[in-house]
Design brief:
- By secondary structure, this protein is of the alpha/beta class.
- 31% of the residues lie in helices and 17% in strands.
- Helix 4 links the parallel strand 3 and strand 4.
- It is globular.
- The chain starts with a helix and ends in a 13-residue tail after the last helix.
């Protein structure tokens, strides 16, 4: 058995390969890891590269694909890319859930028959508190989008990112997501990480590389240890968790990741619930 196969089998390495399709976003969230916003440079991974690497990932033994950004649905051909990726491996897409107007819903309707899930951010049961952290009308758009997506047959998860003191709001938030049709098993809760814009704003908890679940992550800037790794602060990319500037063939960053994994102390499992 190869070192990669062993790491995947014993789950010391996550089976999902992540792709940052882009860095720009329609929101400017206060704790954004990548300082994303409307004026951020696009820095996109092209469709052919994502597809080629996804196929390589499957051949190497990975079992899932993750798509994140920025806001992935700002990428023009994302619905078509997701349909193709779902023919390779199951896909999870992280999105802020604010762009699902009728035209986009019509374009993604075929994904109801594909192995594609959307993870949508919703942080507070109160619209005002939620929108202070994320942006105007975020709450309303998410609450409208979730039932519309479920009606298309598209699986939806809710991701809640908590600041200190927000845990008391969780019971009401859980009542809300259940009312939207999302069960407790599809509700992900995690702390704000002090990276990116959260570092600048003195928010969240610090995380070492040992605290971050290792999941190979591909961006326009290279391959990273985790989807929480290719962060941006003060407009500059953090490279503390960079594995390789080279991403093709995928075996190159995989080898770099296995090398880092082999140097972890025995029993050094991730200590933060940030999946």
């Amino acid at each position: 058995m190869t070192a990669l196969a062993t790491a995947l089998a014993d789950e010391s390495l996550g089976g999902r390969v992540w792709f940052y399709t882009n860095y720009h976003c329609n929101l400017t969230c206060s704790y954004c890891l990548t300082e994303s916003g409307p004026k951020v440079a696009r820095r996109e991974l092209d469709r052919a590269t994502v597809l080629d690497l996804a196929r390589e990932a499957k051949d190497l033994g990975f079992s899932q694909i993750g798509i994140t950004g920025g806001e992935p649905f700002l990428v023009t051909d994302l619905p078509e890319l997701l349909a193709e990726l779902a023919g390779v491996l199951p896909v999870l897409v992280l999105t802020n859930g604010t762009l699902f107007q009728r035209a986009l819903l019509d374009r993604i309707a075929p994904l109801g028959d594909a192995d594609v899930s959307l993870q949508i951010s919703l942080d507070h049961p109160d619209p005002v508190a939620n929108d202070v952290m994320r942006g105007p009308e975020n709450f309303r758009k998410v609450v409208e989008a979730v039932p519309a997506l479920l009606a298309l047959g598209i699986a939806v998860r809710i991701a809640t990112t908590l600041e200190d003191g927000d845990a008391d709001d969780l019971p009401r938030l859980c009542i809300l997501h259940r009312s939207l049709g999302v069960g407790d098993e599809d509700h992900v809760v995690r702390p704000i990480l002090r990276r990116g814009r959260a570092e600048t704003g003195d928010m969240g908890v610090r995380a070492r590389y040992l605290d971050l679940p290792p999941e190979l992550t591909i961006t326009a800037d290279g391959a990273f240890w985790s989807p929480f790794a290719p962060t941006v602060r003060g407009g500059s990319l953090d490279t503390d968790l960079l594995l390789s500037r080279t991403v093709r063939p995928l075996q190159r960053p995989v080898d770099a990741m296995i090398t880092v994994l082999s140097g972890r102390p025995e029993g050094a499992d991730s200590t933060l619930n940030i999946r």
